[in-house]
Structure formats: structure tokens, C-alpha cells
């Protein structure tokens, strides 16, 4: 398992034209980015998918088969390589992804001043009670939010898994996931929080506990250059 992060703060419409990578990007992503009102949202989505292609090609140097990204009925992306599982998240100036040989999920959030005390009412009652008892409510909420999102994204069924259908019990460095009356209780989810940039929370969810010790940071320009010159993508 590996986790990667790319900073996109300096990428804008004047120095990055995502249509250059139309031959790489999936049709679903191309349709999606055309509907965004803000260019930065397009950048986040495009860089997320390009990052997956880059990691795959770097790890599969002997393969001549390019990655084909598809989506399940709930919108979760997956690929044509059965042993290559991935998940992407983005927020603020960062795009992150996790790759593994088994199903994974990841979530990153920029901690802004939203009404998180009202939003907690949509979570499990156990989590609402826990938040009332903590003095660091904002920190608790965003930690909890990324944990639950990473679990939902691991499952890959979107919000058909309601936020109040399970809860996360946080005990020092260990987080356990508990579902209410669900067959998902038969699945052992492992969750890890990673120290990241100031004002960000990042959580990853896997089906085992072999998480990397740290996150690998990649340079966006090197990713773009590599993909443009790799012969495994049809031009």
C-alpha cells in the first residue's frame, strides 16, 4: 500500500490545459469537468485521475497495457487491473490517492469554519455524544468526517451507506468501525489518520493494517511530463 499527495496550488487556467490529456482521461471525467463552474474544481478532478495513471505506469514498467478507469453503479472508480485498487480525494490545495492490492478508501478535508455542530446530527448518536463531551469540537468533527468518508469510499456504495448507520470509536491511535444491523459487520475495516499539512485532516481505510509510515509527495509537473511522453497511451 502507498499513499501519494500532489500540491495543485500553483496550477491554473494560464499554465495548465487539461484537454491536453483527453487521450488519457476517462470519458466520465471529461464529462464531469465540463460541468464545473470553477476551473480549480476541474484541476482537482483531472490531476486525481492523472495521478492514478502515473502511479500505475510507474509500478507496471513491464506492462504494455494502459490503465482503463471505469466506475461502478455508485460512481466509485475502478480499473481493468484486478490487483490494482485505488481511491482519490482532494480538498483545498491538495490531491491525494491511495493504492493497494485490495479495496481501499481515502479522504482529505480542509478544515473550514462550517456549522459542524449542526452536521454532527446526521451522524450516529454515539458520535454526537462523543462530540458534546470533547473540548476540541472542530478537530473532532473533521477527524471523524474523514474517517467515515474513507470507510464509505472503501465500500464503494456512496451514501447508500448512511452516515448514521455506523460509528467510529476512537481510542488513542486505534479506530474501530461498528455498523448497526448490517452484514458489513463481517468486514474488518482498518483506519489510520495521517499527519498532514496544517488545517487538513486525512484518513485512510483498508482491509488490512499494513499502512505506510508516511505519505509520498509528488511534483505535478513531473507527472504531466511523464504522461505526455509515455508511449503506452494512444495519442
From TrEMBL:
Q: Please name the SUPFAM superfamilies in this protein's record.
A: 4'-phosphopantetheinyl transferase
Q: Name one GO molecular function term.
A: holo-[acyl-carrier-protein] synthase activity
Keyword rRNA-binding part of the UniProt annotation? no
Q: Which domain of life is it from?
A: Bacteria
List GO terms (cellular component aspect).
cytosol
Provide the 4'-phosphopantetheinyl transferase domain boundaries: 103-205
An example of a Pfam family matching this protein is ACPS
The 4'-phosphopantetheinyl transferase N-terminal domain, residue ranges: 17-98
Ranges that cross the membrane = none
Which InterPro entries is this protein grouped with?
Answer: 4-PPantetheinyl_Trfase_dom, 4-PPantetheinyl_Trfase_dom_sf, AASDHPPT_N, P-Pant_transferase_sf
Question: Might you name a Gene Ontology BP term for this protein?
Answer: lysine biosynthetic process via aminoadipic acid
Which UniProt keywords are present, listed alphabetically? Transferase
Instruction: Say which family it is in.
Output: Belongs to the P-Pant transferase superfamily. Gsp/Sfp/HetI/AcpT family.
Q: What is this protein called?
A: 4'-phosphopantetheinyl transferase superfamily protein
